[in-house]
Amino acid sequence: MVGRTRPTANDYFAMVRRDELWVRGVLDESRANFGEAVERGRETVARNRIVDPSLYARLRDACEEEMERVRESIHAMPDARVRAVVTATTEDFESTIAITIDGVSVVGTRETAAGDYEQLKRLLPPATSHRPPTNHPIVWRNGSAAVLLHEAIGHAAEHRHEPLAWPQWLRVRDETRDGRSADLIAGELPAATRRESFRDVPLRRMTNLVVEQIGAPFDLPEERIEVHLVAGGAYEPLTEMVMIHVAISELVNGDSATGIRPFALRASRSAIARSLIGASGTPMHYPGVICSREAQELYVGSHAPLIVTSELA
Amino acid sequence: MNEVYRKWGRSVRREGERLVRVDEAGEAIENGLTFHARPMADMIELAAPDGESVDAAAREIESIVKPPVVLERLFVSEGSVAHECNDIRWTETLRRVHVAIARPPIRALLDLADFQFDAVQRVASVLLRVGGERDAPKRIRIAENVGAALMLSAKIEKSQSAAAHDGKGEPIGERSVNGEEPPNWFRPSYRLRPRRAWFHLRARSFGDIDPDAPEAIALLAPIGERMLRVLCVDGDRVYPSTVPIRPIVAAGPTDTWYAYGAGAFGAELML
Asked: Which among A30, A48, A199 is the nearest to B25, CB-wise?
């Protein structure tokens, strides 16, 4: 064939993004961004304009209308630092709200924002919190086990690492917004190809991680660490080590609970697989995964039941 | 009063196997309360970056790295950029290279601002004979590419080097870096608020660099608060080590520029 063919839906991408940062009820930063990318063979050509005016108008209007609704939510959070990002693309639509109070952050969608905000205020650590103890089992509350397994199972699957023997009662899948699903425990790649912006190379990345338990044993240890919020996590593909930074947690002994200072856990994914000793309930929305890989930051929905692990180093 | 900054850019980058060409323009407006950033429709005449040289540079790096050493991550880019702020317009041409070379379980990180790959060649070569972890040597010589990454935090005498324009178009004067607020502004992107920063840091030469001391030739992880994870070469021995950031007893600046922060020149250091 001579000459270039028109791009198809599979090799054309366009996006419009609006983002705003509100600090204690005042608009601090406001950004608009838009552009398109066309893929031809191993080459991508990207620019910050969208040639089709009706497509541009449709994506822009979707962003503006959603941002109006997001601002309504933000007005109810006058004591927080709130970043709202709304992105409409030819493949997807996403609206996320990151809320920070006293240096502790949660992130979710407009639908979960009010609940995330209330939960963050409720969980904020007291001024006197104690050094983290060692050698304690951990109860991952509030869906926070989704972060642990995002790193240990999700990223391992993205890197095509060999599946491990996880407990029979555990299910971990990634769901795309159009209903496709990947069994991450079996090592399947996430089904969605995602990118942060029109400038970026699309990659197979997680969209919505769902952890479930079916008939798991459950016995709440008398003395335990209870994790409520995680500040971040990482998976090192060369060593298969997982790092989790715990932001808010407590040492619980019977009926008494003491706040613990932020701390880090580091364990291999095989050690994490061996540490899972029980779970209870249905998956809970966890407010907080912005996943960074190859310098592209993407929101990943996260859900997990209450999970118990034995001590992790 | 509104401060308006505009930027036009054309870039080509090799990211793994893909070649990505990006043309974009945008403006940032600060009104004293809110920072606004948005794309601009108007593009100006800018030299097209050389996609062939980017691709050739990427292929050169790929040819350097041989099994069992693997090229884990490769970004090579070239860009032509025009800036405008306070009625001042200036242009620049940029080259950037980020390479992660792995010999599991370790990974060497190299960030360069030109298509000269001596450091890549050396690191890829010594990784072929890397051994196990060793304790930090009592005295260690830090290679210039690693020293450049340390320049911002290094507690030594250093100076800002002169250049034509900062992020607001103002000239950058040569001056000693002290505890004061930097006089110039840095804008890594039009989408980010400018921040004060020291530009093009250069170490003042002092002390004696011991050429026989073990040498840290590459970072194995981003610089920590108190520790450096580095790849060490000591005669025939090559090993990873975690080195405490001790007082620097000697420094020797070089003329190679690196894109750490708002810029830093290479510096051989003795810890």
From this structure: A48
